[in-house]
Structure formats: structure tokens, C-alpha cells
């Protein structure tokens, strides 16, 4: 009798697995038809237990997000004041992914990995699989590794491409499931999605620093709006065409007309390193992260953005953060300077002193400087020693 019972369980498991595979194949054909791109190779479906998925995510972060890179990102967030203390980015991000993921396309093995209990909810299974199958198509036609490159995950240029990829897959998921995306974009923003996440008990996401949670949420919300703009013009041909010239900034994601005009790509400031320091890290903050930061501080963010970039220098003892920001008009430049003046004085109780064409601040063992350069640009500098700020200004001919 016991053997018959075990046999029945095996038969039931086989039938469920076969039915799920059949549904997976049906969704793959549907996603390919909607995309106008047949699969170049079959995508395998693999079910993982929660423990196996946890092991996969830990291994993934060890290989794709080494500790040195995580430490550079953590130091950047701390030096800008986006976090008040250094955080263990690799541990936090792996926990966030495990809390929020039910399925994932692995661009290394080219497999679709899903939680084994996902079969208990056929509707959720269809949503997630159609989304991840579009990622598989993106990879087969446009190479996700090549698209993202080696830029830091908290770089505006990477965020823009992530918004394209996630917005695209979200739009296709909606079409595959018969949902009108126009209704969603009118009624969903990042703050609403954060609220929904907290009500669903996603504690890691709710308690994460805002710049980290927004890096996970923004690509789906703003990315969907960006992709939908081009979908309205030429359906999926219009969406697929974007990959020939992917967006270079979050400003282009928020304002797709800027992408159409070929503007809003930004530029990199050509900084020279002061003597005694070596380059540690560099990147672009961009429109989205600046807007999120000022909004979190209950300050009005500048409405415009042209370009920004930063370089972090260090030696065995000292640090120097150098950031250049260019905005479209004088009013936004003044607003940026006023925001930072208020932040440093209110949050850090900074002492300030006007010196030359800029203003110096001293905060808990750190020296800061804000200085207007050119017509519409600003320098934001932070160092453990004031002498490195002076050396930077001299070697880059910015004066004092």
C-alpha cells in the first residue's frame, strides 16, 4: 500500500512537471511572436529549492560582484553622503535579491531558474516566465553582458541600460498577459511600488538605503515609461531598435524626447590626479540618483541635468572625492549649491568659510568644498585633508 502511494506521488509529480514544461514552451512561443524575434536557441527551465536559489545567488555575487567592487561602491555612497555609514553592499544586495526574486534568467548558463513552489501559482508563473523569457531574447540578440559592460552598478550609464532592459521585459510581460500598460504607468510610481513592497513584508527592501532600493525599483517604473514611449510609435520594432543605440543616462530615460534628439548623454570631466594620490574609483551619479538624494532630504532637486562625473582618489591614509556637475541654467546651479550648503550645515553641523570662488566646510574630520566653475558647472570636493583639495584645484587649474 505504501509503495502504491509513493508511485502515485511520482506520477502526479511527473504530470505536474510535464504540464509546467508545456506551459513554458507555450509562453516561449508567445514571447517570440510578440517580440518579432524567434529564439535562436532553446532556453532550459530549471526549478530550484529556496536553499538552492540562495546558493546560486551567493555564487553569482561572488563571481559577478567581487568584494573589491562592492567596497568601491560602498565607499562612493558614503563619500557622497548617500549613506551615513559604509554598508556591506554585497551582502545587502544578495539578501535583497533573494527576498524579491521568484525567477531569474542566468545569462551565464543561459537557463531559466525559478523557485520550485512557483508552480503552485500558475498566474504568477506565467507573469515571471514571460518577463524572464524576454530577457533571454534580449541576451540572444543584443548580448546583455556586452550591453552592460564593466561599469559600476551604481553608475548612471548602467542604470539607463538597466531601465531599458527591465522596462522592455515588463512591457512584454503585460502584453503577453493581456494587461493594458497605459493604465499601469498612470497609476504606478516608485513611491507606490515601495509602499506595496513594504505591505508585502519585503523588509530588506523597505529598510534598505533609498539609493539602493531605488536602483532596484526605478528600472521597472521609469524603464516601462521610456520603452512605452517608443512602443506607441512603432510597436516592438521601435523597442528593438533602441538596442542599436541604447540610452546613456537616466535623464534620457525620464525624458525620452532628449534621447530622440541625441542630447542628455552627458560627458565625463577630465580630472587630473593631485600628487600623492592614486585613482580608486570613478563614475557618473546622474539625474536619477541626484533627484532621489535631494528628495529624500526634503529638498527641491534641480529640474535640469547636462552631465556629471566623479573620481575618488586615495593613498594608504587619505581620501579625496572630486565631482563635477553641469546643469542647464544658472537657477539650477544656485539651487544645487544651496541644497548642499543646507545639507552640510543641517545634517553634519558643518562650519563654513568663503574662500576665493568657493566655500569650505569642515565636518567631523572631513574637509568639503563647493565651488562654481564656468557658466553652469559646480565642483563638489571632500577630503580627509584640505591640502589635497588645494592640490586638486591647482593641478586642474580651477583656482581657489
Describe it:
The chain is of the alpha+beta class. The protein has two domains: 12-261, no CATH class; 278-395, Protein Transport Mog1p, Chain A, CATH 3.40.1000. It has 16 helices and ten strands. The chain has helices spanning 2-35, 50-64, 67-80, 89-100, 122-142, 144-148, 156-176, 181-187, 190-199, 203-207, 210-242, 250-254, 256-261, 286-296, 330-348, 386-395, and strands at residues 44-48, 103-106, 111-115, 278-283, 307-314, 319-326, 351-355, 358-363, 366-373, 377-383. The strands form two sheets. Strands 4-5-6-10-9-8-7 form a seven-stranded antiparallel beta sheet, sandwiched between helices. A hairpin with a 2-residue loop joins strand 7 and strand 8. Helix 1 packs across helix 7. It is elongated and about 70 Å long.
Write the element-wise H/E pattern from the N-terminal end onward.
HEHHHEEHHHHHHHHHEHEEHEEEEH
Estimated radius of gyration: 24 Å
Shape: elongated
Mean pLDDT: 88
Adjacency order of strands in the biggest sheet: 4-5-6-10-9-8-7
Task: Please give the number of β-strands.
Answer: 10
Oligomer: single chain
Number of continuous helical runs: 16
Can you summarize the main beta sheet?
Answer: 7 strands, antiparallel
